[in-house]
Amino acid sequence: MLTxxxxxxxxxxxxxxxxxxxxxxxxxxxxxxxxAIKDIVTAELNAGIDIVGxxxxxxxxxxxxxxxxxxxxxKIEGGTTVIKSKxxxxxxxxxxxxxxxxxxVLDDYIIKHEDxxxxxxxxxxxxxxIVTGPSTMICASRIESFYKNKNDAIIDYAHAFNSxxxxxxxxxxxxxxxxxxxxxxxxxxxxxxxxxxxxxxxxDIELPIAVHAxxxxxxxxxxxxxxxxxxxxxxxxxxxxNFKILKNNISKFKGKKFGFGCLNSAIDQVDDKYRTRDLIHxxxxxxxxxxxxxxxxxxxxxxSRENAFKKLQLMCNLNKEFxx
Length: 324
Fold this sequence. Notes:
Shape: globular
Order of helices and strands: EHHEHEEHHEEHEHEHEHEHEHEH
Strand order of the largest sheet: 1-12-11-10-9-8-6
Number of helices: 12
């Protein structure tokens, strides 16, 4: 099995502390977020993660504003995204630089540790692109004008943001793209519109696509099973009923792989080793190792850095047990 992260990871923005960085700061090119990404990816790799993410650090882990800031028709006012006019594509790539920063850290890590890594471990290493999905983006924003209802905005956002996914595919070496849609389980999203939007968003994209949905899936599992994506990334450690639903309806998920949330991201303490091992064991029995990518339930950004690291380390160490 492979291991990955869902998104955020604790970080601290650092002031320039050497001559080179201070000069960059003077000329306005010092990027404290880039330094944070390097620290995050290094921590993920040291914990044993296979497929790393950049931590979504910009906008201080605000998964809405990090993208809306760049989209035509959307503005940030008082920390909230406001839709001012018709939503159109960004003039610039949004995530490419950060994904490529993460990949550079990964490449340097492999070079440094190539004598300690097997060929299979090196092949399994990679980076993924992580973006916020259309339904979550619009439901978390305020519509001020132009749109009479949020569903029209969701569809327009999907059309507009498709260019970003194409850029990820063309300008990075991402192994796959994860679309974050935590709003799907809240009951405020029209799932037929969400389905249509994801199809539009991923149109003409050949990279594997994952959808991450938080929370209780009891009312949406059939809709999730019907999404035209390769991977469903769901919570199981903090929401064990999700596993019961999956197990009892496994035939509906034929052809899907799973980002299997086996660490409870809602608690700032290291998960119980034996409970986590048991959950992974049950997942293997139901889904098969080839259909599982182990990860936390959600992002770990709100936890202490020490516990976030130890959680990932626990998961990766348990994975080694299954792979041995």
